[in-house]
Amino acid sequence: MRRFINSGIVKSITLFFFLLAPAICFSWGVTGHRVVGEIAQRHLSKKAKKELQKLIGMESLSSWSNWADFIKSDTTHTWDHVSKWHYVNLPGNLAKEDFLSSLQNLKVENLYSQIKALTVELKDKSLPLEKRQIALRLLIHFIGDLHQPLHVGREADLGGNRVKVSWFDKQTNLHSVWDSDIVEFQQYSYSEYANNLNIANATDIKNWQESSLEEWFYESYVLANKVYASVPADGKLGYKYNYIFKSDLDMQLLKGGLRLAQVLNEALK
Ligand SMILES: [Zn+2]
Questions:
Q1: Tens of pLDDT, residues 207-234
Q2: Are 135 and 18 contacting, i.e. CB atoms less than 8 angstroms apart?
Q3: 76 by DSSP, 3-state: which?
Q4: Domain holding 35: CATH number?
Q5: CA dihedral 68, 69, 72, 76 (to 10 degrees)
Q6: Residue 241 placed within a domain
Q7: How many A from CA of 182 to the centre of ligand 1?
Q8: Distance (Å) from CA 86 to ligand 1 centroid
Q9: Which residues have beta carbons under 5 A from ligand 1 (an ion)?
Q10: In this predicted model, what pLDDT tens digit does every residue of 132-188 receive, in sequence order?
Q11: How many structural domains comprise the chain?
């Protein structure tokens, strides 16, 4: 009897994770966020580095980059309100002007509204140190999230979380493929990945950094539309998918890092 109950519990737990797993994947996995943090670290101004030290000490942007995901497991519910700051949902295939006006007129807190609010907090030296440190931790993460195209995805499928696909032999969902599977497939450590990406020329870097926050969102959105349109009917993703999207993936990680540096250089001058 006892054995029977235990196996029943195990089955329920397994089923629970099967059902829930797709719904709890919410951003670039640990590697992607660390790549963004590491690239940013290499593009900080002297002044920003100095100011940053007061906030982060000897730690690095990459080591702080995943905190915003870890706090989702905080059982005190202190951070529950932050979970909807990781993404923004908009209808697909909007024209640019419609996208921009929709983005700017959303009534709920979201990735776009909070990046702006947190940047203001980070800049404000009259705020307590701890408040600015939290703003920094979240910003490091959210500038990364904004470059994961499915964080600028569609509400109906929770940014691809409900789009079932396979990644080679594994059953997963489209959002998870972009968070982790395709990143891990490259088989780099985060610092190796950052080394490989960090070879852009000064003109490109300047152009990518100096475009507006709204442009950054629009780029992710355009890529998200391509990602949605590129799911094959059988949902099978593998070598060919990697071949199609590898350069987009790399570009998003690189731009994420360069733009995080830009945001910090501006906020901490
Ligand atoms: Zn996130």
A1: 999 999 999 999 999 999 999 999 999 9
A2: no
A3: coil
A4: 1.10.575.10
A5: -40
A6: yes
A7: 17
A8: 5
A9: 27, 86, 145
A10: 999 999 999 999 999 999 999 999 999 999 999 999 999 999 999 999 999 999 999
A11: 1
